[in-house]
Design goal:
This protein has 7 helices and 12 strands. By secondary structure, it is of the alpha/beta class. The chain has 2 domains: about 150 residues, 3-Layer(aba) Sandwich (Rossmann fold); about 110 residues, Dihydrodipicolinate Reductase, domain 2, CATH 3.30.360. The strands form 2 sheets. The protein has a 7-stranded parallel β-sheet, sandwiched between helices. A 5-stranded mixed β-sheet has the order 8-9-7-10-11, with helices on one face. Helix 5 packs parallel to helix 6. The radius of gyration is 19 Å and the shape is elongated. It starts with a strand and ends in a 7-residue tail after the last strand. It binds NADP nicotinamide-adenine-dinucleotide phosphate.
């Protein structure tokens, strides 16, 4: 049994994770943490009471619960210190929270080595989104002019999404950096062409009603190719989260991306 605590347990993703962990073979929920605290982890998500209440102090929970794994779905400004605290206690983090900088990921990778504790980060835990990224990298070899449109609910804090950034990074592995569009183009309203990643443009839509969606559009002579993924609800992420929680302790160092855990 892998002993798991959930950080950000009262949030939208945290509640879905609580339920998934309680229902998953091989995982045992031993605790939960959220700045809000209080509720029983079972009744919070409409399951029978577990007798495990959501705590507010992560460091204290890590010390007295001694879990194997901490699953974190909190906020971009909280995730880094949560991960560092987990590693210090030799607890393996499984991180879904987006917004970690490259520098923070480097520090986490070093902390994994220093504490001899593996960690796992995935910008997107939905298998379809992972396939989209892999297919996009393949398509970019042949159609290197590409733009990314990501669409999320309007409570999301960071932009562009972690998935969009990882998609751009994977495309950049096979695409030579180059400017796209008219060399003389100009913006009549600042930001009209979106973010620029090595000449690829990334557009972020934030509207109520969306969960997490992404289109990658490739343009070629007389043709376009669009690859699109839609997460219809938060359950779409749960098989990936459960897989990572089961596997993280057998990894070495910091692993980034769900595709690394698939065949
Ligand atoms: P959310 O509903 O705001 O949930 C975050 C929860 O964490 C809230 O209850 C929040 O409390 C709490 N929290 C804030 N700081 C904390 C801390 N230091 N320690 C413990 N708990 C803390 O957000 P969400 O929609 O669940 O999304 C959470 C994160 O997951 C976001 O970064 C989002 O982009 C990411 N996400 C990733 C994936 C993926 O597949 N990787 C999928 C979906 C979402 P307050 O509300 O009081 O601040």
């Amino acid at each position: 049994m892998t002993k798991v605590i959930v950080s950000g347990a009262c949030g939208r993703m945290g509640q879905a994770v609580l339920k998934a962990v309680q229902e998953a073979d091989g995982l045992q929920l031993v605790g939960a943490v959220d700045v809000r605290g209080g509720a029983d982890t079972g009744t919070l998500v409409g399951l029978p009471a577990t007798g495990i209440c959501v705590e507010t102090d992560l460091v204290a929970a890590l010390a007295h619960l001694k879990p194997d794994v901490m699953i974190d779905f909190t906020r971009p400004d909280a995730v880094f210190s949560n991960v560092m605290a987990a590693l210090k206690h030799k607890v393996s983090p499984v991180v879904g929270t987006t917004g970690l900088s490259d520098e923070q990921k480097r520090v986490i990778a070093n902390a994994c080595v220093e504490n001899e504790t593996p960690a796992f980060i995935a910008p997107n835990f939905a298998i379809g989104a992972v396939l989209l990224m892999v297919l996009a990298r393949q398509a970019a070899k042949y159609m290197p002019d590409v733009e990314i449109i990501e669409l999320h609910h309007d409570k999301k804090l960071d932009a562009p999404s972690g998935t969009a950034v990882q998609t751009a990074e994977m495309i950049a592995e096979v695409r030579k950096a180059h400017k796209q569009g008219n060399p003389h183009e100009f913006e009549k309203i600042a930001g009209a062409r979106g973010a620029d990643y090595e000449g690829m443009h990334i557009h972020s839509v934030r509207l109520p009603g969306y969960v997490a969606h992404q289109e990658v559009i490739f343009g070629g002579l007389g043709q376009t190719l669009t690859i699109r993924h839609d997460s219809m609800n938060r359950e779409s992420f749960m098989p990936g989260v459960v897989l990572a929680a089961r596997k993280v302790c057998s990894l070495t160092g910091l692993t980034i991306g769900l595709e690394k855990l698939l065949d």
